Amino acid sequence: MEKIRPTVEKKITMAENLSIKIEPKITAIASQWEKIQTRMRKEFGDVIYRSWLKPLALLSNEHGIVRLSVGSRFIRDWVNTHYLERLRQLWILEDSAVTTIEILLVEQAHRLNIISVDDQQVGNEQPKPLVVNGNGDTVQRTIPIANHPNYDQLGVRLDPRFTFENFIVGKSNELAYSAARRVAESASVSYNPLFLYGGVGLGKTHLMHAIAWHIRKSSPNRRVLYMSAEKFMYQFIRALRHKDTFAFKEEFRSVDVLMIDDVQFICGKDSTQEEFFHTFNELVDKNHQVVVSADKSPANLEGLEERMRSRLGWGLVADIHPTTYELRLSIVQAKSELLKANVPLDVLEFLAQKITSNVRELEGALNRVIAHAALLHTPITVGSTQELLRDLLHQYEKPITIEDIQKKVAEHYQVKLTQMHSPSRARNIARPRQVAMYLAKQLTVHSLPEIGKKFGGRDHTTVLHALKKIEELCAHDREFAEDIAFLRRSL
Ligand code: ADP
Ligand code: MG
C-alpha cells in the first residue's frame, strides 16, 4: 500500500492521467482487435504477422474509424499498400460500423494525445489498490501502467527486442555500448549525464531501452523513467493546462534513473527546456543517473541554452558512428537467425553492402525480403532481392556522371580517355565517342549542348547525330546492341 504523504492527492491526479481506465467499451474493442489479430496470424502466417501486423497497436474505434499506431514509417506504408483492405474487411466482420482504417505513426498519436487501447488494457487483471485522498476518504484507483513489466514509470512501452543481448557491437558503437552497459550495471553513478548521440537509426533508443531492461531486472526497486523529449514536452504542457505542474515535477524528480531520448526536440522550446534543465540539475545534484540522447553532440545542438549545453557535456559524451560493412553483416545475420528465416549468405552480404544509411532501414529491407518470400513461397536470391528492393536501392545509387561514362567506354573499346575530347574523326575513335554520348543522354539528365561541351566542346547537332547513329546501329546489329546493353548494365 502506498504511503500517505501530503502530496498524495496531487500524485494521484498525475498518475490518473496516465493510468488505466478500464471501461467496458474499451474492453470490447480490445477483444475485437484480439480476434482480428488471431485471424490475421492464421491467414498470413507467423513470419508476416510478426514482421508487419504485430507491431500495430490499437488506438481507438470511434465513429466508424479505427485508428492503429506503429513506430515505423516503413511498416505503416507497407501495411497500407498490402494489408489495409483485408484489415478493413476483418474489422467489418467484427463491427459493421467500421468504414475506415487509419494507421498513425506513434509520434502522431502522441501529438494527438491518444493513448493506445493496448496500453489502457494493461493491468486489467491486477487488483485495484485502495488509497486515501486528502479528505481522508477511501477511493479506489486504477493501477498505473508503471506496474506492468513492459512499461516504465510513466507508462512508456519498452521494446522487448531492445536489449543488450540483441545489440551487435562493432567499432562504430562500442564506446556508446560500453558506456550504456556501465550505467546499467553499476549501482553507483559513473558518469552523469551519459550523453549518447548519433545519426538516425543507429541504435540510440535501443541502448536506452536496454539500460532500462537491465536495471529493471537487476534492481527492481530502482525507479527508471524513459521518455522521448517530445513526450516530456507534451506531458509538461498537459500538466500546465491542468495546473498540475507540481505533481509533474515530483514525478520526474523522484526517479533514480531518468532517460530522455532525442533531446534535440526540445531545443528552441524555451519553457520546456527550462523545466528539463531544472529536473536535470536536481537529479544530477542528488546523484541520480541521467541518460540523454540526441542526433548531435551538445556542442552542435542548435537552440540549446548555453548553461544546458555545458551541463550536458559534463558527464560522458559518447557518439555512435555510421555503421561499417562488417557490423551491418553481423546485424542482418543475427536478425535473420532471430526470425528463424533461412536467408542465404550472399543475400545478407548484398543487403549489408547496399543498404548503408542506417540499421533501421537495413532491418526493414531484410523484413521485406523475408515476408515476400514467405508470402509467395519463393526462394530468397540476390536477384529476387534486387528486384523487390529496387526502389529502395535506387536511393543509394550515385547518379552517373558523364566522366564515369567516358571512362567506362574508353576502357571497353581500349581507347585513351583523352580521345573522348579530341577532334579526331577516325572511326575507331569516333564510334566509341558516339557510344559515350548516347549513354550520356540515356543515363544522365544533361542536355545535348551540355553533353557536347563535355566532349571537347562539340556542337549539340553533333551529339544529336551521334544519338541517331547509335540507335540505327542498335536496330540493325544485334551484337552491337548487346555491347551497348552490357555497357549500360556495367555503369
Ligand atoms: P535511433 O534511436 O538511433 O534512431 P534505434 O535505436 O531506434 O535508432 O535503432 C533502429 C533499429 O535498428 C532498431 O530496430 C534497433 O534495434 C536496430 N539497431 C540499431 N543498432 C543496432 C545494433 N548495433 N544491433 C542490433 N540492432 C540495432
Ligand atoms: Mg531513437
Structural description of this entry:
This protein is α/β, with parallel strands linked by helices. The chain has 4 domains: about 5-130, GMP Synthetase, Chain A, domain 3 (2-Layer Sandwich), CATH 3.30.300; about 155-320, Rossmann fold; about 325-395, Helicase, Ruva Protein, domain 3; about 400-490, DnaA protein, C-terminal DNA-binding domain (Chromosomal Replication Initiator Protein Dnaa, Chain: A). The protein contains 23 helices and 10 strands. It has helices at about 10-15, 25-45, 45-55, 75-80, 85-95, 105-110, 115-120, 175-185, 205-220, 230-240, 245-255, 270-285, 305-310, 325-340, 345-355, 360-375, 380-390, 390-395, 400-415, 425-445, 450-455, 460-475, 480-490; strands spanning about 55-60, 65-70, 100-105, 130, 140, 195-200, 225-230, 255-260, 290-295, 315-320. It has a 5-stranded parallel β-sheet with strand order 7-8-9-6-10, sandwiched between helices. Strand 1 and strand 2 form a beta hairpin. It binds adenosine-5'-diphosphate and magnesium ion (MG). Magnesium ion binds near residues 204, 205, 261 and 262.
Secondary-structure map with pairings?
Elements: H1 8-17, H2 24-44, H3 46-53, E1 57-62, E2 65-70, H4 73-82, H5 84-94, E3 100-105, H6 106-111, H7 117-121, E4 130-132, E5 138-140, H8 174-185, E6 194-198, H9 204-218, E7 224-228, H10 229-241, H11 245-253, E8 257-261, H12 270-285, E9 289-294, H13 306-312, E10 316-320, H14 325-338, H15 345-354, H16 359-376, H17 382-388, H18 390-396, H19 402-413, H20 427-443, H21 448-454, H22 460-476, H23 478-490
Parallel strand pairs: 2-3, 6-9, 6-10, 7-8, 8-9
Antiparallel strand pairs: 1-2, 4-5
The chain binds adenosine-5'-diphosphate and magnesium ion.
